Predict the structure.
Amino acid sequence: SVYVSVPIKKTGSIDNNTLIARVKQYIIEYWNATLFSGESVSGFDKTGFEIGQDVPSGRLYTPCQKAIGEGGYALDITVGESPSPTGNLVSIGYQELATISESQIVVTIS
């Protein structure tokens, strides 16, 4: 399991609870390669995370920025294998699959 921390600097008027729920939802959709389903977009990684694939925090800016839009920005996304992650990479074994759930994503807003 992977834990994610997403601090957001909010500049727009979107409701905090709505923004937090949207960020969590979009991270999970991205993880499962469904974030861009039905959309004709290019230039974004749409593959999610596959067996044996490491989880770099930098890949999670795509779903976060899609969720936030023009209403702010993600400050420094961190990932780890335990709550309160501080790293930028979770290494996944050759025959392992990185998993995540909504409860493992913490979004804070300033």
